[in-house]
Design a protein that fits this description.
globular, alpha+beta, 11 strands
Length: 695
Amino acid sequence: MIVSLPAPADGIEPGSGLGAWLQRLVIGAGLLVLATAALAAPLGYAGWWRPWLVLPLLVLVAGGVGWLVARLPAARVDTAPAAALALVGAAYTAWAAATHSTQILPRRDAGSNLQAAISLADTGYRIVPLSPAGMGAPAVLRVHDVTLGSPAFYQLGDAAHPSIQPQFVIGPAAIYSPGRWLGGLSTMFVQPAVLAGLSVLGLGLIVAVLLRGWWGPVAAASVALQFPLLHTARATYSEPLAELTIVAGALAWVLAARFDHRRLALLAGLLVGGTTLVRIDGLREAILLIPVAALGLIQRRSWPAPLVRGTAIGALGGGAAAQALSYRYLGDIAGSLLPLIALGAFMALVSWALVVLSRRGAGLPDSVRRLLPAACGLGVLVIGLLLALRPLFMTVRQNPNDPGADVVAGLQLRQGLTIDGARTYAEQSVAWLSWWVGPVALVIALLVAAALAARLGRAWTTRPQIPGRPPAPLPTWAGPYVVALGSTLLTLWRPGITPDHPWAERRLLIALPFVAVLVVVGAAWVWRGAATSLRSQPARAGLALLTLASLVIPTALATWPHRSERVEAGSQARVAALCRALQPGDIVLSVDDRAANEWPPVVRGMCNKPALVAKYYARRHPEALRILVDGVVDAAPPGSRVVLLAGESPQALARLGFTPQPVASGEVLEDERLLERRPDGLVPLRIDLWLAPAS
């Protein structure tokens, strides 16, 4: 049976009231995120990202966005479900904020984004020029095996004109840096929760617009229970920003298709394409817009052309900002980025050819028209099953010389697994999904996704009722469905991330909500009698509740152990202890791996002291390290003091003949970093620091 989402009872008349206000709020918030990132690109390049300039500009931008969205049409959402949606979003925000992480050290992306935001807020520059005077450069930087760079922070320039370029694109630093001005770290730590709450609200609104009734709050609550989303909502990751822009874009797209509205289509394209300003891999979702836009052009609708223009403007703008401000990062990920760009070019070329052929009168043969709906549904089923069965016939590996291979090998050693650092564990990506939503929900989601694919194929091939007239428009859910399905399949095929958990689940932040929404759609079909032969309403209601239970119960059980976690809580005190121990004129030189990998941006950005790093070779050879230290001491400016920093043990300092002085000691809790099973808690992480004056 081919089923479809029910037609809304209110036709295409715009809605009003709380539901309309919430729709405009989500779209406006997404636009404000992108406008802030776009504003930061030129101002951060010029060194003008200063509170006296930026905050008034952001007020003006927010006013302009509010004026714009207030004039957009919104779909009808009844007041009671809209109020429930607002409550779910607020509760989720409060939960994530109350249990927020304090990931200050750049051990993973959250800490790197935080330090980049602090750097941007305090210096005004995205690429931060460093004053040679305070550290004795260029003489110090000419010492062999001395660098300013550290993981996620590249050294640029020469010894006379050094600078630091943070990794990743500018969006997260742009969004989180105003929190530094307005409330310091405490504000920055809860910003992701607010953004994530708006994303959950937006997702629920999409379902409420498409399904009506109370299905929107049900979908929002189901997504809010998923721990991987909560995990990123608790820290300064880029995912809460990208979730909001993509969800806001999907909502705008649904409304654009519903009202055939050009301005909403333009905004939808800007939001999805502009996601590249906050996460460069938002390019994947941008290129997935192309085929549906092509189908809309074939049907001669008014919304595809502005959608394509908005997407191009957003994606090209994000790409230009990344090239100007994050080019070292783009070089590092070129192996993943270039194939994605090539895929986009191929899809654009094929779509253009289909549109041209259609305009010239070409069409599908009748035999293809008859078979296409079933082929679309069957294709989704087959691909889903193949992805799930991959562990039976495939072991995915990467280049063993990739830096990530050493990390994986170390984790395998500690977890008693066979040492094979080249493994990516990508063949287990469907199992990762099942950990958090349960296998039954995955089966239901696959069946619903296949049914929707068949419905979309039927809509594409339906001939117009009157000769010379265009066919009925594509379903309003077609765009978000194609993007979510394509993104999910591409992600499951190649997650492209270090496969330790819950870190790796960051790649599933479209796939997991998509599964939840598909299950809710299935429950709605059952409830309304569209997917079952049951005639009794109580029987249909019971089966619908069982369908929802297959999702909600496993999700809640998987999330329960993580309900009150606070990753790296207490690390702020260790940073404060280090900063207190340093004196005016100190130059800090990191001499072991923990110090070199985790502390230079903190010393530079939060302690306001020059931070140097002994390169890897010198850290491994005491003789070379001693020569390096002597060279830095000799090159340091008069009146300064070179201080050595160790973060693993005092032995590195003792071997050099210096007396280690403990500065900070204690444990915090970090994520488990498991490879082959679902994490269910936190593990201790020691943060110990020793200093030794070298001059």
